[in-house]
Amino acid sequence: MSGEEQRDEAASPATAAPASVMEAEKEADAQATAPPAEDLEMTDNGPNSQRQSPSPPQEGEAPGPSGAEEFTDSRMLRPQPALARRGWRRWANLSTGGLIKLGRSAAEEREAQRMARATRPTAGSRRILVVSRKGGVGKTTVTLMLGHAFATLRGDRVVALDGDPDGGSLGYRVRRETSASVKRLLDDHDSLESYTNIRGYTSQAPTRLEVVAAHDDPTLSQALGYDDYQQAIRVLDKHYNLLLLDSGALDGATQGMLELADQLIVVLAPSLDAARSASMTLDWLHEHGYGHLVAEAVAVINQVRDKVLLKHKVFEEHFQRRCRSTVRIPWDPNLEVGGETAFSDLLPATRSAYLDLAAEVADGFPESARNGTG
User: Is 35 exposed, middle or buried (0-12, 13-18, 19+ CB in 10 A)?
Assistant: First the structure.
Protein backbone atom coordinates (compact mmCIF):
# COMPACT_ATOMS: atom_id res chain seq x y z
CA MET A 1 0.00 0.00 0.00
CA SER A 2 1.34 3.39 -0.95
CA GLY A 3 1.91 6.06 1.62
CA GLU A 4 -0.90 8.16 0.10
CA GLU A 5 -3.41 5.29 0.41
CA GLN A 6 -2.38 4.76 4.03
CA ARG A 7 -2.97 8.43 4.75
CA ASP A 8 -6.48 8.28 3.17
CA GLU A 9 -7.45 5.13 5.13
CA ALA A 10 -6.27 6.61 8.39
CA ALA A 11 -8.23 9.75 7.77
CA SER A 12 -11.55 8.04 7.01
CA PRO A 13 -12.60 7.47 10.69
CA ALA A 14 -11.94 11.08 11.45
CA THR A 15 -14.10 12.26 8.61
CA ALA A 16 -16.95 9.88 9.61
CA ALA A 17 -17.03 11.00 13.24
CA PRO A 18 -18.89 14.27 12.73
CA ALA A 19 -21.73 12.46 10.93
CA SER A 20 -22.15 10.01 13.83
CA VAL A 21 -22.23 12.82 16.35
CA MET A 22 -24.87 14.70 14.40
CA GLU A 23 -27.07 11.59 14.21
CA ALA A 24 -26.77 11.07 17.96
CA GLU A 25 -27.70 14.67 18.65
CA LYS A 26 -30.78 14.41 16.40
CA GLU A 27 -31.91 11.26 18.23
CA ALA A 28 -31.48 12.97 21.61
CA ASP A 29 -33.49 15.99 20.41
CA ALA A 30 -36.27 13.71 19.18
CA GLN A 31 -36.45 11.95 22.55
CA ALA A 32 -36.51 15.26 24.39
CA THR A 33 -39.42 16.59 22.36
CA ALA A 34 -41.43 13.34 22.27
CA PRO A 35 -44.59 13.23 24.43
CA PRO A 36 -44.40 11.20 27.64
CA ALA A 37 -45.34 7.55 27.45
CA GLU A 38 -48.66 8.06 29.21
CA ASP A 39 -49.74 10.48 26.48
CA LEU A 40 -49.46 7.80 23.82
CA GLU A 41 -52.57 5.92 22.91
CA MET A 42 -52.02 2.18 22.48
CA THR A 43 -53.37 0.83 19.22
CA ASP A 44 -53.08 -2.43 17.40
CA ASN A 45 -49.90 -1.11 15.80
CA GLY A 46 -48.35 -0.03 19.09
CA PRO A 47 -47.97 3.40 20.70
CA ASN A 48 -47.89 5.18 17.42
CA SER A 49 -50.64 7.74 17.80
CA GLN A 50 -51.00 10.51 20.34
CA ARG A 51 -54.21 11.01 22.31
CA GLN A 52 -56.00 14.07 21.07
CA SER A 53 -56.54 16.87 23.58
CA PRO A 54 -60.20 17.59 24.26
CA SER A 55 -61.44 20.26 21.95
CA PRO A 56 -62.78 23.45 23.51
CA PRO A 57 -66.56 23.62 23.81
CA GLN A 58 -68.21 24.90 20.68
CA GLU A 59 -70.53 27.85 20.72
CA GLY A 60 -73.85 26.89 22.23
CA GLU A 61 -72.48 23.87 24.12
CA ALA A 62 -72.84 23.67 27.89
CA PRO A 63 -69.52 24.15 29.70
CA GLY A 64 -68.06 21.21 31.60
CA PRO A 65 -68.18 20.95 35.40
CA SER A 66 -66.39 23.75 37.18
CA GLY A 67 -65.32 21.58 40.09
CA ALA A 68 -67.20 23.68 42.65
CA GLU A 69 -69.07 20.57 43.79
CA GLU A 70 -65.85 19.38 45.43
CA PHE A 71 -66.06 22.10 48.07
CA THR A 72 -68.24 20.28 50.60
CA ASP A 73 -67.97 20.04 54.36
CA SER A 74 -67.13 16.34 54.25
CA ARG A 75 -64.24 16.89 51.80
CA MET A 76 -62.79 20.18 52.95
CA LEU A 77 -63.44 20.48 56.70
CA ARG A 78 -61.87 18.53 59.52
CA PRO A 79 -64.49 16.47 61.37
CA GLN A 80 -65.50 17.94 64.71
CA PRO A 81 -66.35 15.73 67.67
CA ALA A 82 -69.92 15.76 68.91
CA LEU A 83 -69.65 17.55 72.24
CA ALA A 84 -71.77 16.93 75.29
CA ARG A 85 -74.83 19.16 75.54
CA ARG A 86 -75.89 18.47 79.10
CA GLY A 87 -74.65 17.25 82.45
CA TRP A 88 -71.22 17.65 83.97
CA ARG A 89 -69.55 17.04 80.60
CA ARG A 90 -71.19 20.14 79.15
CA TRP A 91 -70.22 22.12 82.26
CA ALA A 92 -66.59 21.04 81.86
CA ASN A 93 -66.55 22.06 78.21
CA LEU A 94 -67.98 25.51 78.97
CA SER A 95 -66.00 26.26 82.12
CA THR A 96 -62.63 25.55 80.48
CA GLY A 97 -63.32 27.74 77.47
CA GLY A 98 -62.90 24.83 75.11
CA LEU A 99 -59.58 23.59 76.50
CA ILE A 100 -61.39 20.43 77.51
CA LYS A 101 -63.69 18.93 74.90
CA LEU A 102 -65.68 16.06 76.27
CA GLY A 103 -67.85 14.05 73.93
CA ARG A 104 -71.41 12.94 74.45
CA SER A 105 -72.27 10.42 77.11
CA ALA A 106 -73.67 7.01 76.23
CA ALA A 107 -77.17 8.30 76.99
CA GLU A 108 -76.70 11.28 74.66
CA GLU A 109 -75.40 8.98 71.92
CA ARG A 110 -78.50 6.79 72.25
CA GLU A 111 -80.70 9.88 72.08
CA ALA A 112 -78.90 11.13 68.96
CA GLN A 113 -79.34 7.75 67.28
CA ARG A 114 -83.02 7.71 68.19
CA MET A 115 -83.42 11.20 66.75
CA ALA A 116 -81.76 10.14 63.50
CA ARG A 117 -84.11 7.16 63.21
CA ALA A 118 -87.27 9.13 64.00
CA THR A 119 -86.41 11.84 61.47
CA ARG A 120 -85.67 9.43 58.66
CA PRO A 121 -86.99 10.94 55.41
CA THR A 122 -90.02 9.37 53.81
CA ALA A 123 -90.46 9.25 50.06
CA GLY A 124 -93.89 10.70 49.41
CA SER A 125 -96.55 10.32 52.09
CA ARG A 126 -96.84 7.54 54.68
CA ARG A 127 -100.16 6.19 55.99
CA ILE A 128 -99.94 4.65 59.46
CA LEU A 129 -103.05 2.88 60.76
CA VAL A 130 -103.55 2.42 64.51
CA VAL A 131 -105.85 -0.50 65.33
CA SER A 132 -107.26 -2.39 68.27
CA ARG A 133 -110.06 -4.91 68.39
CA LYS A 134 -110.76 -4.13 72.02
CA GLY A 135 -111.86 -0.70 73.23
CA GLY A 136 -110.44 1.13 76.20
CA VAL A 137 -106.78 0.27 75.55
CA GLY A 138 -105.71 3.83 74.70
CA LYS A 139 -105.63 3.60 70.90
CA THR A 140 -106.64 7.23 70.43
CA THR A 141 -104.07 8.35 73.00
CA VAL A 142 -101.33 6.41 71.22
CA THR A 143 -102.34 7.97 67.89
CA LEU A 144 -102.30 11.45 69.37
CA MET A 145 -99.02 11.19 71.27
CA LEU A 146 -97.22 9.48 68.41
CA GLY A 147 -98.39 12.35 66.23
CA HIS A 148 -97.03 14.85 68.75
CA ALA A 149 -93.69 13.02 68.82
CA PHE A 150 -93.36 13.03 65.03
CA ALA A 151 -94.46 16.66 64.71
CA THR A 152 -92.01 17.72 67.42
CA LEU A 153 -89.03 15.98 65.84
CA ARG A 154 -89.69 16.34 62.14
CA GLY A 155 -90.02 19.33 59.86
CA ASP A 156 -92.64 17.85 57.55
CA ARG A 157 -96.42 17.92 57.90
CA VAL A 158 -98.14 15.44 60.21
CA VAL A 159 -101.91 14.95 60.44
CA ALA A 160 -104.07 12.58 62.50
CA LEU A 161 -107.46 11.53 61.15
CA ASP A 162 -110.21 10.27 63.42
CA GLY A 163 -111.44 7.23 61.53
CA ASP A 164 -114.12 6.13 63.97
CA PRO A 165 -117.45 6.34 62.08
CA ASP A 166 -119.34 6.26 65.37
CA GLY A 167 -117.85 9.56 66.47
CA GLY A 168 -114.39 9.28 68.00
CA SER A 169 -112.78 11.58 70.54
CA LEU A 170 -109.53 12.47 68.78
CA GLY A 171 -110.77 15.94 67.84
CA TYR A 172 -111.40 16.77 71.51
CA ARG A 173 -107.84 15.95 72.55
CA VAL A 174 -106.41 19.16 71.06
CA ARG A 175 -107.63 22.74 71.23
CA ARG A 176 -110.37 23.05 68.62
CA GLU A 177 -109.68 25.68 65.97
CA THR A 178 -112.59 24.70 63.74
CA SER A 179 -115.93 22.96 63.97
CA ALA A 180 -115.24 21.20 60.66
CA SER A 181 -115.09 17.41 60.64
CA VAL A 182 -114.15 14.68 58.22
CA LYS A 183 -117.72 14.84 56.87
CA ARG A 184 -117.35 18.48 55.81
CA LEU A 185 -113.89 17.70 54.44
CA LEU A 186 -115.48 15.09 52.19
CA ASP A 187 -118.33 17.39 51.18
CA ASP A 188 -115.88 20.09 50.07
CA HIS A 189 -113.01 17.93 48.80
CA ASP A 190 -113.36 19.10 45.18
CA SER A 191 -112.40 22.64 46.19
CA LEU A 192 -109.43 21.68 48.40
CA GLU A 193 -106.62 22.21 45.92
CA SER A 194 -104.02 23.72 48.24
CA TYR A 195 -102.73 23.28 51.77
CA THR A 196 -104.07 26.73 52.62
CA ASN A 197 -107.57 25.51 51.74
CA ILE A 198 -107.35 22.28 53.70
CA ARG A 199 -105.89 23.97 56.77
CA GLY A 200 -109.35 25.36 57.52
CA TYR A 201 -110.58 21.82 58.24
CA THR A 202 -107.93 20.90 60.82
CA SER A 203 -107.03 21.91 64.36
CA GLN A 204 -103.33 22.36 65.07
CA ALA A 205 -101.58 21.66 68.37
CA PRO A 206 -98.51 23.60 69.60
CA THR A 207 -96.35 20.72 68.34
CA ARG A 208 -97.67 21.43 64.80
CA LEU A 209 -99.64 18.17 64.75
CA GLU A 210 -102.92 18.69 62.91
CA VAL A 211 -106.12 16.76 63.64
CA VAL A 212 -109.18 16.09 61.50
CA ALA A 213 -112.08 15.42 63.86
CA ALA A 214 -114.73 12.74 63.47
CA HIS A 215 -118.25 13.81 62.63
CA ASP A 216 -120.52 13.88 65.67
CA ASP A 217 -123.71 15.19 64.13
CA PRO A 218 -126.61 13.15 65.57
CA THR A 219 -128.84 14.13 62.65
CA LEU A 220 -126.82 12.05 60.18
CA SER A 221 -128.83 9.00 59.21
CA GLN A 222 -125.89 6.97 57.89
CA ALA A 223 -122.35 6.65 59.22
CA LEU A 224 -119.34 7.13 56.99
CA GLY A 225 -117.94 3.94 55.54
CA TYR A 226 -115.34 2.21 53.38
CA ASP A 227 -115.34 4.58 50.40
CA ASP A 228 -115.65 7.72 52.53
CA TYR A 229 -112.49 7.14 54.52
CA GLN A 230 -110.55 6.11 51.44
CA GLN A 231 -111.54 9.41 49.86
CA ALA A 232 -110.51 11.32 52.99
CA ILE A 233 -107.10 9.65 52.96
CA ARG A 234 -106.56 10.55 49.31
CA VAL A 235 -107.47 14.18 50.00
CA LEU A 236 -105.02 14.44 52.91
CA ASP A 237 -102.36 12.47 51.06
CA LYS A 238 -101.74 15.38 48.71
CA HIS A 239 -100.76 17.79 51.48
CA TYR A 240 -99.20 15.79 54.35
CA ASN A 241 -96.11 13.62 54.70
CA LEU A 242 -97.35 11.49 57.60
CA LEU A 243 -100.98 10.40 58.04
CA LEU A 244 -101.91 8.79 61.36
CA LEU A 245 -105.24 6.99 61.09
CA ASP A 246 -107.11 6.37 64.35
CA SER A 247 -109.49 3.53 63.52
CA GLY A 248 -112.65 2.30 65.19
CA ALA A 249 -113.62 -1.35 65.35
CA LEU A 250 -112.75 -3.72 62.50
CA ASP A 251 -115.72 -2.48 60.51
CA GLY A 252 -116.14 -1.36 56.92
CA ALA A 253 -114.51 2.02 57.57
CA THR A 254 -111.42 0.39 59.07
CA GLN A 255 -111.19 -2.08 56.20
CA GLY A 256 -111.23 0.84 53.79
CA MET A 257 -108.28 2.35 55.63
CA LEU A 258 -106.51 -1.01 55.75
CA GLU A 259 -106.58 -1.16 51.97
CA LEU A 260 -104.58 2.07 51.78
CA ALA A 261 -102.37 1.67 54.87
CA ASP A 262 -98.59 1.45 54.57
CA GLN A 263 -97.91 0.50 58.18
CA LEU A 264 -99.78 -0.86 61.16
CA ILE A 265 -99.66 -0.18 64.90
CA VAL A 266 -101.51 -2.66 67.11
CA VAL A 267 -102.37 -1.30 70.57
CA LEU A 268 -103.12 -3.46 73.60
CA ALA A 269 -103.33 -3.04 77.34
CA PRO A 270 -101.10 -5.09 79.68
CA SER A 271 -103.76 -7.66 80.50
CA LEU A 272 -104.47 -11.21 79.40
CA ASP A 273 -107.83 -10.27 77.90
CA ALA A 274 -106.30 -7.46 75.86
CA ALA A 275 -103.44 -9.70 74.72
CA ARG A 276 -105.84 -12.39 73.51
CA SER A 277 -107.87 -9.77 71.66
CA ALA A 278 -104.76 -8.27 70.04
CA SER A 279 -103.51 -11.69 69.01
CA MET A 280 -106.89 -12.48 67.44
CA THR A 281 -106.70 -9.13 65.63
CA LEU A 282 -103.42 -10.25 64.07
CA ASP A 283 -105.04 -13.58 63.14
CA TRP A 284 -107.93 -11.78 61.46
CA LEU A 285 -105.56 -9.56 59.51
CA HIS A 286 -103.60 -12.57 58.31
CA GLU A 287 -106.73 -14.37 57.20
CA HIS A 288 -108.00 -11.35 55.27
CA GLY A 289 -104.86 -10.70 53.24
CA TYR A 290 -103.00 -8.22 55.43
CA GLY A 291 -100.17 -10.48 56.53
CA HIS A 292 -97.63 -8.08 55.02
CA LEU A 293 -98.86 -5.34 57.36
CA VAL A 294 -98.68 -7.66 60.38
CA ALA A 295 -95.10 -8.68 59.60
CA GLU A 296 -94.00 -5.02 59.63
CA ALA A 297 -96.31 -3.90 62.44
CA VAL A 298 -95.31 -2.36 65.75
CA ALA A 299 -97.14 -3.69 68.80
CA VAL A 300 -97.67 -1.10 71.55
CA ILE A 301 -98.26 -2.31 75.08
CA ASN A 302 -99.91 0.72 76.62
CA GLN A 303 -100.38 1.96 80.20
CA VAL A 304 -97.84 -0.40 81.73
CA ARG A 305 -97.41 -0.34 85.50
CA ASP A 306 -94.34 -1.86 87.12
CA LYS A 307 -95.89 -3.43 90.21
CA VAL A 308 -98.25 -5.95 88.65
CA LEU A 309 -98.33 -9.74 88.41
CA LEU A 310 -97.91 -9.73 84.64
CA LYS A 311 -94.59 -10.97 83.28
CA HIS A 312 -93.94 -8.14 80.86
CA LYS A 313 -91.02 -9.79 79.08
CA VAL A 314 -92.94 -12.99 78.36
CA PHE A 315 -95.91 -10.88 77.35
CA GLU A 316 -93.82 -8.96 74.82
CA GLU A 317 -92.10 -12.03 73.38
CA HIS A 318 -95.36 -13.28 71.88
CA PHE A 319 -95.84 -10.09 69.86
CA GLN A 320 -92.17 -9.81 68.97
CA ARG A 321 -92.51 -13.15 67.20
CA ARG A 322 -95.49 -11.90 65.20
CA CYS A 323 -94.61 -8.24 64.57
CA ARG A 324 -91.48 -6.33 63.62
CA SER A 325 -91.07 -4.79 67.07
CA THR A 326 -92.79 -3.95 70.34
CA VAL A 327 -92.78 -0.78 72.45
CA ARG A 328 -93.86 -0.46 76.07
CA ILE A 329 -95.59 2.81 77.10
CA PRO A 330 -95.68 3.39 80.87
CA TRP A 331 -98.76 4.49 82.73
CA ASP A 332 -98.95 8.28 83.05
CA PRO A 333 -101.49 10.10 85.24
CA ASN A 334 -101.51 13.02 82.79
CA LEU A 335 -103.19 10.79 80.19
CA GLU A 336 -105.71 9.16 82.48
CA VAL A 337 -108.51 11.74 82.22
CA GLY A 338 -108.63 11.74 78.40
CA GLY A 339 -108.56 15.51 78.00
CA GLU A 340 -106.29 17.91 76.18
CA THR A 341 -102.73 16.98 77.08
CA ALA A 342 -99.62 18.70 75.79
CA PHE A 343 -96.70 16.49 74.84
CA SER A 344 -94.51 18.49 77.21
CA ASP A 345 -96.85 17.60 80.11
CA LEU A 346 -95.98 13.91 79.95
CA LEU A 347 -93.67 12.31 82.48
CA PRO A 348 -90.11 12.02 81.13
CA ALA A 349 -90.34 8.22 80.88
CA THR A 350 -93.61 8.43 78.94
CA ARG A 351 -92.30 11.07 76.59
CA SER A 352 -89.17 9.00 75.98
CA ALA A 353 -91.27 5.92 75.23
CA TYR A 354 -93.25 7.79 72.58
CA LEU A 355 -90.01 9.00 71.01
CA ASP A 356 -88.92 5.34 70.95
CA LEU A 357 -92.19 4.49 69.23
CA ALA A 358 -91.60 7.19 66.62
CA ALA A 359 -88.15 5.75 65.92
CA GLU A 360 -89.52 2.20 65.61
CA VAL A 361 -92.25 3.31 63.22
CA ALA A 362 -89.82 5.37 61.12
CA ASP A 363 -87.55 2.34 60.79
CA GLY A 364 -90.24 1.02 58.47
CA PHE A 365 -90.13 3.99 56.11
CA PRO A 366 -88.92 2.88 52.66
CA GLU A 367 -86.34 4.73 50.59
CA SER A 368 -88.65 4.95 47.58
CA ALA A 369 -92.27 5.98 47.24
CA ARG A 370 -95.06 3.43 46.97
CA ASN A 371 -96.08 2.29 43.52
CA GLY A 372 -99.34 3.62 42.13
CA THR A 373 -101.62 6.29 43.50
CA GLY A 374 -103.82 4.15 45.74
Answer: exposed
